[in-house]
Amino acid sequence: MIQTARLADLFVEAADALVAELDLVAFLQDLTDAAAEVSGAGAVGLVLADRRGLLRFMAASNDSGRALELYQLQAEEGPCLDCYRTRRPVVNADLATADRQWPRFAPRAQALGFASVHAFPLRLGDDALGALNLFGTTDTRFDPDEVRIVQALADVATLAILHDRRVARSELLTEQLQGALNDRVTVEQARGALAEREGIDVGAAFTRLRERAAVSGRRVAEEAAEVIAGR
Questions:
Q1: Residues 155, 88 share a domain
Q2: What is the mean pLDDT of the chain?
């Protein structure tokens, strides 16, 4: 069930971010957190296509969302891949009856405590840049109006990607997607390094990384590079 009372604040926050100097890695992370809050999903993940058209992990609301996204990519099956390939949402999928559709992914998701899944394409005309995935710990079902709302959240992610450096041509868009994915790899490496260095978990390390970026005035990926360099 979508929490409509929070939606207005969410879209205002998104609009504020899009008219400011955008930190895409941080923005997409915030978007997955907000999608989980608004939808009540147990986990939310977001994947983007690289320059070869292969999906790669970009952001997740928690470790479960990250694990589910990475497993889909490893197994080469799951709602995010179906959604990206068809450019159509996967809605109200019951994991208890999805063994035939996703024989490896569905049991793994159930083992992690999830019962339902929805996936929405990051649409750009007739193409897709990636997918936004919502995983429910119960058999969560969206009605048509709720489907439109969550699709709008996925569309906000697309707008953020297009906004960042104002991408216009397809080859520049491909480079922008690749740049965002490269930034995410840098952030992941820095999270691990910071967690080990300060004796904290990786979730707290990401929060610490964002705090450092806010103080320094750098983007999160730039601050991550500083951490990796030992500064």
A1: yes
A2: 87
